[in-house]
Amino acid sequence: MTAPIAKFDPQLDLVLEREIDVPVELVWKAWTTPEHIRHWFVPKPWTITSCEIDLRPGGIFASTMRSPDGQEFANVGCYLEIVPLRRMVFTDTLLPGWRPSSKPFFTAVLELEPKGAGTRYVATAIHGEEASRKTHEEMGFQDGWGTVVSQMVEYIQAGHVKL
Q1: How many domains does the chain have?
Q2: The Activator of Hsp90 ATPase homologue 1/2-like C-terminal domain covers which part of the protein (predicted)?
Q3: Range of the domain at 22
């Protein structure tokens, strides 16, 4: 049983919902294996140059994104909740070991549900203030996170993720 997530607040939150044609077990593995994340986690031609995962509450979730012109952007946070094959919650508000971040931006909730042979995929970005939500929206949340889901599905369907 999972704890309920806060009620969606359109002033603070963004959500992406999709039904995708890959099994939940492969989606989970794509999300929890650093070697897989490197291949789909940012819209191309951006790349992931490093990824670290310690899949437990308080464990690190970090990645470094590289822009097409070579600039790198490190993202470090920690997991708050892990429910295998169903939900993961991670944030940059807290760092690994529950240390507060000096620059919190958002908390992400990924919820997965088997849907036939596929998966109902819901990704919610929760922000602490309306300005952060607006910034995230203007950064291209819907297009960016949607592209990433499509890339992940293509990567899985190409046979790169195995159980």
Answers
A1: 1
A2: 21-156
A3: 13-158
How far apart (Å, rounded) are the C-alpha atoms in residues 122 and 61? 19
Give the whole-angstrom CA distance, residue 4 versus residue 9: 14
Q: What's the rounded Cα separation, in Å, for the pair 38 and 152?
A: 10
In a domain, 61, yes or no: yes
Indicate the helix (H) or strand (E) that contains 41: none
Establish if 144 belongs to a structural domain: yes
Q: Tell me what pLDDT residue 2 has.
A: 67
Within a domain: 122 = yes
CB-facing half-sphere around the CA of 17: CA atoms within 13 A: 5
pLDDT tens profile 69-107: 999 999 999 999 999 999 999 999 999 989 999 989 999
Q: Is the peptide bond before 68 cis (omega within 30 degrees of 0)?
A: no
Question: Does residue 163 sit within a domain?
Answer: no
CA atoms of 55 and 78, how far apart (whole Å)? 9
Contacts with 13 (C-beta within 8 Å, 6 or more apart), sequence order: 124, 125, 126, 127, 133
Report whether 77 contacts 61 (CB < 8 A): yes
Distance between CA atoms of residues 78 and 97, nearest Å: 8
CATH number at residue 125: 3.30.530.20
Q: Does 111 score more than 60 pLDDT?
A: yes
Q: Full-prediction pTM beyond 0.85?
A: yes
